[in-house]
Amino acid sequence: MSLPQRTQVLIVGGGPAGSSSATFLAQAGVDVMVIDRAHFPRSKPCAEYLSPEASRVLHAMGALQAVEDAGAAQLTGMRVRAPNGFEIEGAFAAEHGFRGFRDRGLALRREILDGLLLDRARAAGATVHEGVTLEALDAEPRGYAVRLRHDGVEHDLHADLVIGADGLRSRVARALGVARRSRWPRRLALVAHWRGVAGIGARGEMHVQRDGYLGLADVGGGLTNVALVVPARLAKGAAGNADGYVRDWLARYPHLAARFEHAERMSPVRATGPFASHATRAWAPDAALVGDAADFFDPFTGEGIYAALRGGEMVAPYVLEALRAPTAKASAHALRAYDRERVRTFAGKWRVEKLIGLAVSFPALMNHAARVLSRRTDLADLLIGVTGDFVPAREVLRPGVLWRMLVPPARS
Q: Which domains, ranges and CATH numbers included, belong to the chain?
């Protein structure tokens, strides 16, 4: 397939953020072109968890039924185990009165999910070009001169607007001069699929230890997503022997080692990170960032796929306004408004994520929180609902609620 000479919107990145952006824009009649350096299906190190509210965006894209039909696992809640052995268990369907689009989350391998979402973008009218890399991005009075590489050949085109949906190390963010790395928390993830992990049920699991944490979740087809996240300073031993590093880590904790005694790793251990990136802003003249390219803190709360899908849905009307704007100033005003809306939408969740990140970084704090929340299931359900993206973050950020999360209930 030959590449065009121009497009209204060029989306760099064919993951959930790019597919979501492309679908909503193409549905509105925009000429959209998606590029990705990979060829699909492709594996992607990821927790592969979609929160209950992610199903709403999938439904709006016309993709929910396909994702469920592909065998996505159904998750009813989350379980978090602290280093002291206390457990926090929360359900997505609880008595706090909040309900998501679905009462369950989903989990599906990215090599299946991403292909389904790209198919939706194509069906909506977007063109998708695989095996294409972004080489250069140069601003023009309106839009960008873009240089691409496909099959070893350079190709130039003009894009009226560019969307960076190209992940943690976004080339678009760097080209726009808005990329920024945070110093905390600096963690790496080692991810693989295993078969035969004992005790895997309908809840996702997070096992926090002093030297990292382990996420476990059914992803359908009899497979378990196993994601070990460790401080970057401790990950040197993983270089060249990631499988051995993960197995040694598991062996240190008997309650985990026993569950892997008869398990078999079914895919290579893939690394991703460091995390904690945050663009100084998610827009530039005739450009916007969505998903991990705009912001990613830490994988503990599993915000990545939902934020990507919701970001694509959110950016679309502002991009439409920018494309229709009669002047560069009016276009910039629309994209600036997108960034304000993005911050307003996610700010509360970001605060909760940072509080959880603080607890995970300090075992004594995590142990105390788990000791309290193991006896306050109402608060545990509320917190899990926030991480499921359907309970407003303000519900757990209220001073009274935070206080109850820190103070053990009186014994009767």
A: 6-73+106-182+277-352 (3.50.50.60)
Q: Dihedral, CA atoms, 121, 127, 132, 137, nearest 10 degrees?
A: -100
| Spatial distance between the Cα atoms of 140 and 125, rounded to a whole number of angstroms | 26
Task: State mean pLDDT over 356-381.
Answer: 93
If we measure between CA atoms, which residue out of 214, 232, 386 comes closest to residue 300? 214
Q: Which residues lie below 8 Å from residue 321, measured CB to CB, with a gap of 6+?
A: 334, 337
Contact 107, 73 (CB under 8 A): yes
Residue 89 has pLDDT above 90, yes or no: yes
Instruction: Inform me whether the pLDDT recorded for 278 exceeds 90.
Output: no
Tokens 């494309």, located at residue: 323
The helix, strand and coil proportions of the chain, stated in percent and rounded to the nearest 5, come to 40, 25, 35
Phi, psi of 186 (to 5 degrees): -100, 95
User: What is the 8-class DSSP label of residue 286?
Assistant: T
Query: Are the beta carbons of 179 and 279 closer than 8 angstroms?
Result: yes
Helix and strand counts by DSSP (H, E) for the chain: 13, 21
* Closest of 398, 391, 399, 187 to residue 296, by C-alpha: 187
24 HSE (CA, 13 A, CB side): 22
Q: For residue 45, what pLDDT is reported? A: 93
Q: DSSP for 201-265?
A: -SEEEEEEETTEEEEEEE-STTEEEEEEEEEGGGGGGGTT-HHHHHHHHHHT-HHHHGGGTT-EE
In the beta sheet, which residues pair with residue 227? 191, 215
Non-local (6+) Cβ contacts of 278 within 8 A are: 180, 182, 294, 295, 296, 297
